[in-house]
TrEMBL record:
Any one GO molecular-function label of the UniProt entry: oxidoreductase activity
Pfam families linked: adh_short_C2 (PF13561)
Keywords recorded for this protein, A-Z: Oxidoreductase
Keyword Oxidoreductase: yes
Name of the featured protein: Unannotated protein
InterPro entries for this protein: NAD(P)-bd_dom_sf (IPR036291), SDR_fam (IPR002347)
Assigned protein family: Belongs to the short-chain dehydrogenases/reductases (SDR) family.
Origin organism lineage: unclassified sequences, metagenomes, ecological metagenomes
Source organism of the structure: freshwater metagenome
Length: 264
């Protein structure tokens, strides 16, 4: 069954590109009023224009906000809720990796920045989405984790530990917020063919390593992830909470990718 989001309001952080943009477009195509946020106004404007051109009548809005800034994030959540009076869906998609490499050579600030963007940004999105969902005792929140948070990917440990924290946050939030009817789940994508992963998907030893460790030996698409997020946010998943959904072509069945190959 294809989920219908008519009359629903959704927030997608990191919605200016990649998985966030694809998910926002899917929500719009299925009838939701969608707010995307990101740090760059030009990118958000382009994303809003792209969705409007692809989805006739799309109710799409952009808000400039840094997910690590609580005041900005809180205002963004309030803006998303203002369009329909409630916030039904939040997808905490914003994230990135500011450090790769061996532990003993780690740039400490890069590690801090990675944890701040991924884990703290997801926490703030969850905190303020739950704040506006609690009075109506309903809502679905999906957090962006990664296969790197579930099993080791050599030299990607800073990113991976921040994503593992997101899965733990998902568990704690799902247990606590179930009392007020809010569901919380996370998704764990594998290697996705989008602009963020372009240095890997262009080819080379790391891409080969990914594909060798993947039973369904192909790159994922942004639509693969968007469809899974839409399912988790739909009524079809109404009895699912605290789940960490692997969307990785089966990569989790084998070993993690070796990021040292990116530097060879």
């Amino acid at each position: 069954m294809t989920a219908n989001f008519e009359g629903k309001s959704a927030l997608v952080t990191g919605g200016g590109s990649g998985i966030g943009l694809a998910t926002a477009q899917l929500f719009c195509a299925r009838g939701a009023t969608v707010t995307i946020c990101g740090r760059t106004k030009e990118k958000l404007d382009d994303a809003v224009a792209s969705i409007a051109s692809q989805v006739p009548g799309a109710q799409i809005h952009g808000v400039v906000a840094d997910v690590t800034n609580e005041d900005q994030l809180s205002e963004c959540v309030d803006a998303a809720a203002s369009h329909t009076g409630v916030l039904d869906i939040a997808f905490a998609c914003a994230g990135g990796a500011m450090h790769m490499g061996p532990l003993i050579d780690a740039d400490t600030q890069g590690v801090r920045d990675t944890v701040d963007l991924n884990l703290v940004g997801s926490f703030l999105t969850l905190k303020h989405a739950a704040r506006v969902m609690t009075p109506v005792k309903s809502g679905s929140i999906v957090l962006m984790s990664s296969g790197a948070g579930a099993f080791p990917h050599r030299w990607l440990w800073a990113y991976g530990m921040s994503k593992a924290g997101i899965d733990s946050l998902c568990d704690y939030a799902a247990e606590e917020l179930g009392d007020v009817g809010i569901r919380v789940n996370s998704v764990q994508p594998g290697i996705i063919d989008d602009e963020l992963m372009a240095p890997i998907t262009a080819g080379g030893g790391l891409l080969d390593d990914y594909l060798e460790q993947m039973p369904l030996a192909r790159l994922g698409t942004v639509e693969d992830i968007a469809n899974a997020v839409a399912f988790l946010c739909s009524d079809d998943a109404g009895w699912i909470t605290g789940e960490h959904l692997s969307i990785d072509g089966g990569h989790h069945l084998r070993r993690g990718a070796d990021y040292s190959k990116l530097f060879m």
